[in-house]
Write a structure and sequence with these properties.
Length: 500
């Protein structure tokens, strides 16, 4: 009943999935409260500020972000801008005019500053909005939403705080005055646990899949080894478009060559600079600087310069399969509680891609396939022998009594023996899991989801605040940055507006 603000910080992981970075209940919406919020968040992130933060149009939030995180780029939620425009300019929309279409074009379509100025001034004059205070304020903050300025900021493709709304939908039933704060916090913990379990499921499933190649090119093979599945698919789309790219004009007079590149059936042209000696390329669309992987125009120039593989500088660690691996300096000075499942996860993450690549290579011919098939029988027996020596679940964290494991090829191995060995391994695992009292994690998740779906959705008088934050890369041994992350912190609405 006191309408306390609820804040959430959300980002992207290297698989492009939503990560919950933090949530908070605030006392009020003053500058001091926002400063406390961002200070607390920054401390929880080990002092690593995001590259970019998305939030809703609010002067107090902007002031707090500038004070606490001065090097972080501010970005306004464009979705909220469009919603607010519909409310403030409703009298124009009722006339059936094209105001919203032109307003959205100013946000989404213009990549150059002069294009934006011309379009904005034409819209203001057409609808006689020179005296409109809200429109003046929006244009004063154009550096936080317009593409000519935002293309210089890493955003991982984010434009709004919509990721927060998905999180808020899971907790909305408990954002009511009659819910005890303890019960509310317990529910939040369940929501977070459920989201983190989904993260693990996606990571697990991605390691079981082989890349889906549309064109088997050296640069795509390299990208498939480095990028996570989602980023690889996006990169492959750029590579497909590069096949339709052509050079309109070029200037090869200097060491840094200048090209004008266009795509068939597309009007817009882009200026691309390439230096073959340093193997560098830069495009005016700045997709690499904003999204973290090269565009089709840049790929065209790399090919023109006979560069068939991506230079390492253009593979951001933030989008790679091992972006979340931590090293020793990450935990210096911290008391860390040992987690045996973390060791298991590390070993699994290392072995999975190794054996997937091995199986893929062995399947190319009958002889190598049979060799690996026979080898797997001896390997299964060796592994089972080691596992039988373990006396407890926690023994997985200790060093097993194993030296060099040598697997010999048995020329007499048969398909039935292989099948028997694999079945024996899986049955032993199943029995051991039941004996140790492990529970199926999928059941509580489905129960929670079913229970939430049966609850009646309640409309809040006060929308939650959302902040989305992004970092452009993650170095090994550092925090998760820029989970393209928007880290929405509660959605801040105009007090007169209702959330969509």
């Amino acid at each position: 009943m006191d309408l306390r603000p609820f804040a959430s910080f959300v980002g992207f992981d290297n698989y492009g999935e939503t990560v919950v970075l933090g949530m908070a209940l605030m006392y009020d919406r003053t500058v001091e409260s926002f400063q406390w919020l961002f200070d607390t968040f920054l401390n929880a992130m080990s002092g690593r500020a995001p590259s970019t933060i998305f939030y809703r149009q609010d002067a107090y939030q902007g002031m707090a972000i500038s004070t606490v995180m001065p090097d972080t780029s501010h970005a306004l939620c464009t979705r909220h801008l469009k919603q607010t425009a519909k409310g403030n300019m409703n009298y124009l929309i009722q006339r059936g005019c094209d105001f919203m279409k032109e307003f959205k074009a100013c946000i989404n379509d213009h990549e150059e500053e002069m294009e934006l100025f011309t379009s904005w001034e034409g819209m203001i004059s057409k609808y006689s909005l020179h005296g409109n205070v809200w429109m003046q304020k929006v244009f004063e903050e154009k550096e936080k939403w317009a593409r000519p300025y935002m293309k210089w900021t890493f955003s991982a493709g984010m434009k709004d705080t919509q990721l927060n709304e998905r999180l808020h939908s899971d907790v909305r039933d408990y954002l009511t005055p009659d819910v005890d704060i303890t019960l509310f916090m317990k529910h939040l913990q369940k929501v977070v646990d459920d989201r983190r379990y989904i993260e693990l499921e996606i990571e697990f499933s991605s390691r079981l899949k082989l890349p889906d190649f549309k064109i088997r090119a050296p640069i795509l093979l390299q990208a498939s080894e480095a990028y996570t599945d989602m980023i690889f698919q996006l990169f492959q789309e750029e590579y497909e478009e590069f096949q339709s790219a052509y050079i309109v004009s070029r200037d090869d007079s200097g060491p840094c060559r200048e090209y004008i590149v266009a795509i068939l059936d597309k009007e817009r042209k882009h200026k691309v600079y390439g230096n073959p000696s340093e193997q560098t390329v830069s495009c005016s669309c700045r997709k690499f600087e904003t999204l973290g992987f090269l565009c089709s125009h840049a790929l065209k120039i790399l090919d023109t310069m006979d560069i068939k593989y991506l230079p390492n500088r253009y593979i951001l660690n933030r989008w790679t399969k091992y972006a979340r691996c931590l090293t020793g300096p990450q935990i210096d000075g911290r008391k860390v509680q040992e987690d045996t499942t973390f060791e298991f996860s590390n070993r699994y993450q290392y072995l999975c891609p190794v054996f997937v690549r091995l199986v893929a290579k062995a399947s190319e011919c009958e002889e190598s396939y049979r060799a690996l098939e026979q080898c797997s029988i001896e390997m299964c027996k060796k592994v089972e022998g080691i596992l039988r020596k373990q006396t407890s679940i926690d023994a997985s964290a200790s060093q097993p009594d194993v030296e060099d494991i040598q697997v010999s090829l048995s020329a007499s191995a048969t398909d039935n023996e292989l099948e028997h060995a694999m079945n024996y391994s899986s049955n032993k695992r199943a029995k051991k899991t039941k004996k140790k009292g492990h529970k199926d994690k999928s059941q509580p998740r489905s129960c929670i989801k079913e229970w939430l779906q049966n609850k009646q959705t309640l409309q809040l008088e006060q929308p939650a605040m959302q902040f989305s934050m992004l970092d452009n890369h993650i170095q090994p041994g550092t925090d998760l940055e820029g989970l393209s992350s928007p880290f929405p912190m509660g959605q801040l609405h105009n007090e007169k507006m209702q959330p969509s």
